[in-house]
Amino acid sequence: xxxxxxxxxxxxxxxxxxxxxxxxxxxxxxxxxxxxxxxxxxxxxxxxxxxxxxxxxxxxxxxxxxxxxxxxxxxxxxxxxxxxxxxxxxxxxxxxxxxxxxxxxxxxxxxxxxxxxxxxxxxxxxxxxxxxxxxxxxxxxxxxxxxxxxxxxxxxxxxxxxxxxxxxxxxxxxxxxxxxxxxxxxxxxxxxxxxxxxxxxxxxxxxxxxxxxxxxxxxxxxxxxxxxxxxxxxxxxxxxxxxxxxxxxxxxxxxxxxxxxxxxxxxxxxxxxxxxxxxxxxxxxxxxxxxxxxxxxxxxxxxxxxxxxxxxxxxxxxxxxxxxxxxxxxxxxxxxxxxxxxxxxxxxxxxxxxxxxxxxxxxxxxxxxxxxxxxxxxxxxxxxxxxxxxxxxxxxxxxxxxxxxxxxxxxxxxxxxxxxxxxxxxxxxxxxxxxxxxxxxxxxxxxxxxxxxxxxxxxxxxxxxxxxxx
Length: 470
Known about the structure:
mainly alpha; Arp2/3 complex 21 kDa subunit ARPC3; Hypothetical protein af1432; three-stranded antiparallel sheet; 3 strands; elongated
């Protein structure tokens, strides 16, 4: 069951959207009560299924773009067959318990309310689908339902529940991150939609196990349901491992970058600062959260090709020979070759290959002028150059932030995209933490080592003024 889990920037839109959901839930619940006015007969049944809802919710899997997914939908679908149709939305609303609200004092209460509302509305719409499909088939469950009719109805309810839930969450994530809905779907939910829908009939089995007479196990249907939750948990484990594998792969590469660049104190936390600058610049350029995350990753690994450059060349204190300079320039092509086999890095290859191209076409490795270079690469190129100029090298003193800014301005439409230079200038004047390198290093020096201590070196040179990569 999709869930939003972040803090937004446009709170007024979030509040308005949440209020609309609250208004929608009340008449939906009233309609379900009219369609199925059967009373609730067992508080123990309600407590048991409420406990299951809370448990599966807190075994959720975190996703990119400030969302998560759980198997709450299976429990809620099963309650359609156990209770009157007006009860499942109440279970979704009142038994929604996210442990983060206790563990994290900054977790916003409106996010908790939104998640309660969207889950209740999603299962409410699923209940409507279940009722009308059963009615069309002439098999309305409280009187003369059959296994086949229930399977068809619960499957249709599951489809509607899935799309309602994902649509409601995706729209909220889109509001939070200013990301198009299609990108939210592609990034967060497209890969798990098949397994989500395939698991829908499991809800029918859980309900049948719970209501079986006589009980299948131990004299109470709940034991059978709890036993069946073991393989269900491992289905969730598959989702979790998928997400963790992607994270671990990225972390491994970042750790490799930290190891490479820890050799040179002049490049301490270089790629982290490049990423910070690039993220701000990408946001100012109007790129959405999905693109910004890819730019961040590209900035972190842009110099990975230097793993193949000998240390005596890479850290040579004096002027490079022409042959040595040609050797070091190959790190862009080498980096692309190293990463192109991994699907996670496929979209950021233009950053790795082209972060030393120039607006006037005098860069390397391909000499691409202007907009023939990918926008992401042009963003990282500017960020990389500014960081390198303010970092210094054994053969060149570091520039002050003001001097580096002036050089960036002087090289607009020469080395750098002039529109990006304008945005960079506006950002610089707001005094971001990355403007002064020492301020940035002090702030991030105590962060977790693999994440905040990676230090890929940079080559943000102007070929007109420098004879050696920075």
